[in-house]
Specification:
Elements lengths: L3 H9 L3 H20 L4 H81 L4 H14 L4 H8 L4 H6 L1 H14 L2 E8 L2 H13 L2 E8 L5 E8 L9 H14 L5 E4 H4 L4 E2 L4 E3 L3
Parallel strand pairs: 2-6
Antiparallel strand pairs: 1-3, 1-4, 2-3, 5-6
Length: 275
Amino acid sequence: MTTPNDETTKQTALTDDEVKALVAQIADAIRKGAAREPGRWDKFWDRLPSVSTFVGSVVLGVVALLFNYSYGEQQKKEREGQAKLQETEAHTQAEMDRLKFLADEKDRQRKIIVDLSPKILGSSEDEREDAQALLSHFYPEEAPEILRDLTEGDPEEQQQIAQIIALAEQDKQEAGGWGIVIGHDASLEDANTEVRKSEEAGFAARVFKKGARNWFITVARGQGGDHDGFDTEVDAQSANYTVRAKIRGGTYVVNLKEWCKDPQPQQGYVQCANK
């Protein structure tokens, strides 16, 4: 007689052959699974850690680049700001120096005129000539105008020093214009670059060559337009403060007539006879 449990056991029990066959099927499935080509999603999940690491590296790299760019831009703006500030300070200082120079020149001129006036208007011809010579030495271009101002409103005094004024006018013509030497270059092309810099700064300039020397010399000869030179040495010295601030330091003033003898125009420059 069988019980319900015995019946269940009988229905679920497997024979040895069936067990061996099932084990063989499971083993075969495992082998096939191992040999199966990984699918798209299998690869994704298998690579997820490395993908996460890669993405993290890229994100960190982008953040670093953005930070470096931002920091670099900030540094660039700071440098540009500093350069602009220094340039403004240089221009301001140059303008202050220029105004101080003009004020000092005016005081110097006034003192010389005060000291020389009694002699220029005196009765001694020798003293008048000596005074005129000193005045022409210090202010060759301004001397005629100064002499006229001293005798303004007095025809007798004007007649008295008419000859001195004529001599002063002659000295003024012989003095010629004034220029500012900006640079010496080994080639005409480089010198023309200096000319363009001068023009951008507001100064008319020209290239000179002296004697047999191979240097091409750039000289500023006025402010704006085509000038033959600054009218007076004071004008040139005053402009030189601006030249040094806007173009370069080390520039200096020359009397063009003395500095360049017998100027002869050439292709792109002026040839001077003297060294």
